[in-house]
Amino acid sequence: MKKILTATATMALLAGAAQADEIKLGVLLGFTGPAESLAVGMAGGAEAAIAEVSESGLLLGGTTVSAVRGDSTCIDASLATAAAERLITTEGVSGIVGALCSGATTAAFQNVARANGMVMISPSATSPALSTIEDDGLFFRTAPSDARQGVVMAEVLLEQGINSVAVTYTNNDYGKGLADSFQSAYEERGGTVTINAAHEDGKADYSAEVASLAAAGGDRLVVAGYIDQGGPGIIRAALDTGAFDTFHLPDGMIGDSLQERFGDEIEGSTGQVPGTDSPGAAMMEEVGAKYDFQGTAPFAPESYDAAALIMLAMQATGSTDPMVYKDAVMDVANAPGEVIYPGELAKALQILADGGEVDYQGGSAVELIGGGESAGNYRQIEVIDGVITTVQFR
Questions:
Q1: What is the pLDDT of residues 228-267, one digit of tens each?
Q2: Distance, CA of 296 to CA of 302 (rounded, Å)
Q3: Which of 204, 218, 253, 273 has the most CB atoms around its CB within 10 Å?
Q4: What is the pLDDT of residue 126?
């Protein structure tokens, strides 16, 4: 049930918020590192929502919002922690969209955000371990956990008659969590994992790793890696040696640069990435065109939604204090209330200002469940004529 503030409490909180002419939101993503190509569309999504709200003039009686970027790098916990600390203690942000990768998200939240009472909403950190961290109600995700992705992967492969696979994963929280989740779901449904082996990012040559994968065998190679790091190196070595010619690629491997690198060399390869065929997903194209980013890029809708939820929760509580508005994030994300899509944030702000309720579905059909994470929708892809093509939604 949604919580409704009394009129007196709302007015008091609005009076306090109105003293701030501008607030800042942190956009903490891996602008460098193994997923840097994904950060472009993601930042575009978050910053579009921020611009849309600021331009409306309807947040907390006319408070404007600006974005401040921080680089979590994805692979360096100390740098992720330092970036989060700068956003909070130096820049004075009132909420953080991010981080991008699971390890960086865990470090930034546990080392800095939680201790400072700061809300973080990650659009792409999917490690199952994040479902159970102590978070004081401050951490949320608009992308589903890899516990869900592992099941989707297993279903996709088995439906295609792929009954045995070799698995390689990037050696970190994201890779191991996804690989383990997938293996459990796949074997439970009758599939066989011939090998489940880690690989290190940043190597020039992956022939040794691929030799071990080939020796184990399998109808397809699952590469749970990063699109700008070890994942493409594994694929290249497998193609060059003839070890595998088709691959299954989870979310960290899906993006334009994969298509540009390999084209029809990986014809018939499959994969999945968070996505939906909801009305909001189509409307993200219009938002992208207006704010000059690819609205349908991987995790761009989830990033737009993460920023939107922070600002709508502020409006619902009349406060920019994360320890106050954190309690409204799930309220504005879920029914009951008027359904809100991308490009409709001004409408949502007005409804909330008038004492009404919203059911924010956004660009990713977001619905937050226990632990403040997304229930999960996926876009199933296949490489057809060298192009990453959507074939189904799950």
A1: 999 999 999 999 999 999 999 999 999 999 999 999 999 9
A2: 10
A3: 253
A4: 93
Nearest of 27, 51, 45, 40 to residue 99 by alpha carbon: 27
Q: What is the pLDDT of residue 371?
A: 83
Determine contact, residues 172/199, Cβ cutoff 8 Å: no
- With both helix axes pointing from N to C terminus, report the angle between 300-317 and 279-291 in degrees, rounded to the nearest 10: 90
Q: Beta-carbon neighbour count of residue 297 at 10 Å?
A: 22
Sign of the CA dihedral running 287, 288, 292, 298: positive
E strands, the chain, in order: 22-29, 64-71, 96-98, 120-122, 139-141, 164-170, 192-199, 220-224, 247-249, 270-274, 338-340, 358-360, 368-369, 373-374, 378-384, 387-393
Task: Give the 3-state secondary structure of residue 277.
Answer: coil
CATH class of 147-273+378-393: alpha beta
CATH 3.40.50.2300 in the chain is located at 7-145+277-374, 147-273+378-393
Type of residue numbered 206: Y
Q: Could you tell me whether strands 220-224 and 164-170 are parallel, antiparallel, or unpaired per DSSP bridges?
A: parallel
Q: Distance (Å, rounded) from C-alpha 392 to C-alpha 52?
A: 31
User: How many angstroms separate the CA atoms of 237 and 25, rounded?
Assistant: 42
Report pLDDT for 365.
96
Question: Is there a contact between 88 and 107 (Cβ–Cβ < 8 Å)?
Answer: no
**β-bridge pairing 373-374 and 247-249:** unpaired
Token pair for 115: 């201790």
CA distances in angstroms from 26 to 65, 164, 341, listed in the order given: 11, 43, 22
**Residue 118 pLDDT:** 98
| Fold of the 7-145+277-374 domain | Rossmann fold (3.40.50)
Q: For 190-251, what is the HEC assignment?
A: CCEEEEEEEECCCCCCCHHHHHHHHHHCCCEEEEECCCCCHHHHHHHHHHHHCCCCCEEECH
Which residue positions in the chain have pLDDT lower than 70?
1-20
DSSP states of 20-46 as a string? Answer: -SEEEEEEEE-SSSTTHHHHHHHHHHH
- pLDDT for 370: 86
